[in-house]
Design brief:
Helix content is 29%, strand content 30%. The protein is α+β, with helices and mostly antiparallel strands. The longest helix has 24 residues. The strands form 6 sheets. A 5-stranded mixed beta sheet has the order 19-20-21-3-22, with no helix packed on it. A 4-stranded antiparallel beta sheet has the order 4-5-6-7, with no helix packed on it. A 4-stranded antiparallel beta sheet has the order 11-12-13-14, with no helix packed on it. Among the domains are: 107 residues, Monooxygenase, CATH 1.20.1280.50; 196 residues, Methylamine Dehydrogenase, Chain H (7 Propeller).
Length: 433
């Protein structure tokens, strides 16, 4: 429909000698923000007078008529004018919804939106304005971020238990509980702890504790397993010894020992002579043979598609269990590789040469990584063959033919050892039995 014609006549009593201002400022409000428009060029003709009359008519129309009129005007403009209008509209269409939501009584929605931010983004959000900072503080979003990391990352979970700050998590904040600032300052300390642990692993800095498993006619500790409370070891003299983790108190002594192994996978791997064989546990059918080792298989572990095996040919091999391909050969041990464990980051191996080696798993899976970068650290403390080891994010526990159990603690490293960059560390705690 045609727009109503605008009467362009001007009141006779208006001062026609008044020239338009060169820098006319006028303000438009959209209800939530104001935009100041500055005209830096002189107007032409009777623009100022005609403009006021147009606005007078415009204000009298309904909203739908106003929109239709503006659309008609825009359709008559050139691309250059469209660009100016677009630049003008952008800031008007932007809204601070985080600030607006609490004004509508919807604080919980604003908190929920910001709770998805990572630490770097949460730091930036605190600097936006005081209202954003208030939402983050009252919503305890730093606490929620730490709780999310503890739920999803075993390193964070273990660190929370060992450092004791797990007591402040997963609870509704009491009136006298820690404020948001406590968790805000706790987060960088956790990150520093994690970086220190990673550095200790790579540089070989550790606190070493030694358990002497002396018994009659003992010829070595052949196997072990541990949890947060105790260490259980099997000795060659037909005995099992239990030690409490806190004081390494000998808890129980029995004759005979056995090993157990469990897995949730549908595949079972057995070793026969020089090669591992893969069997299906659901059908008991033979699947394939992994060929490559030149001598007998002494140890292996597998998870998902990855198999890591150690052999008396002194090498470690990584295999793809689905296709049977050898992904990498790790060389460095001088004698039979007796024990292998790995997680998502590292492979830890022990051998009859008395050495424990820490390998970079992700680099080993990258065919472009040079072989010289794969071994992160060699730990040399055992005086006999290394028979068994187990590790987590914070420690390695190993047993040997030298009748000892060693605990390599990468979390609680003495300050005197922090500047050490070579292995072995000489920070022993001797515990004899």
């Amino acid at each position: 429909s045609e727009c109503g014609q605008v009467n362009t006549s001007v009141m006779e009593d208006q001062n026609e000698d008044e020239s338009p201002k060169k820098n006319t400022l006028w303000q438009i409000s959209n209800g939530t923000s104001s935009v100041i428009v500055s005209r830096k060029r002189p107007s032409e003709g009777n623009y100022e007078k005609e403009k006021d009359l147009c606005i007078k008519y415009f204000d009298q129309w309904s909203e739908s008529d106003q929109v239709e009129f503006v659309e008609h005007l825009i359709s008559r403009m050139c691309h250059y004018q469209h660009g100016h209008i677009n630049s003008y509209l952008k800031p008007m269409l932007q809204r601070d919804f985080i600030t607006a939501l609490p004004e509508q009584g919807l604080d919980h929605i604003a908190e929920n939106i910001l709770s998805y931010l990572d630490a770097r983004s949460l730091c930036a959000a605190e600097l936006v304005c005081k209202e954003w900072q208030r939402v983050i503080s009252e919503g305890m979003l730093w606490k929620k971020l730490i709780e999310r990391m503890v739920r999803t990352d075993p390193l964070w979970k273990g660190l929370s238990e060992r450092r004791g700050w797990d007591q402040y998590l997963f609870k509704n904040r009491p009136t006298d509980g820690p404020p948001n600032s406590f968790y805000r300052s706790l987060y960088p300390k956790i990150i520093q702890d994690i970086e220190t642990i990673e550095s200790n692993w790579r540089c070989g800095r550790h606190n070493l504790q030694r358990i002497q498993c002396r018994s009659e006619n003992s010829k070595g500790v052949y196997c072990l397993q541990y949890d947060d409370e105790k260490i259980i070891s099997g000795l060659r003299d037909n005995s099992i010894k239990f030690f409490f983790r806190v004081l390494f108190f000998l808890m129980k002594f029995e004759h005979n020992f056995c090993l157990t192994y469990k897995t949730s996978s549908s595949l079972k791997i057995e070793c026969l002579q020089f090669f591992p064989q893969v069997w299906s546990t659901s059908t008991c059918e033979f699947v394939r043979t992994l060929n490559g080792h030149k001598r007998g298989i002494a140890c292996l572990q597998y998870r998902d598609r990855l198999v890591v095996s150690g052999s008396s040919d002194n090498t470690i091999r990584l295999w793809d269990i689905e296709c049977g391909a050898c992904l990498r050969v790790l060389e460095g041990h001088e004698e039979l590789v007796r024990c292998i464990r790995f997680d998502n980051k590292r492979i830890v191996s022990g051998a009859y040469d008395g050495k424990i080696k820490v390998w970079d798993l992700q680099a080993a899976l990258d065919p472009r990584a040079p072989a010289s970068t794969l071994c992160l650290r060699t730990l040399v403390e055992h005086s006999g063959r290394v028979f068994r080891l187990q590790f987590d994010e914070f420690q390695i526990i190993s047993s040997s033919h030298d009748d000892t159990i060693l605990i390599w603690d990468f979390l609680n490293v003495p300050p005197s050892a922090q500047n050490e960059t070579r292995s072995p560390s000489r920070t022993y705690t001797y515990i004899s039995r």
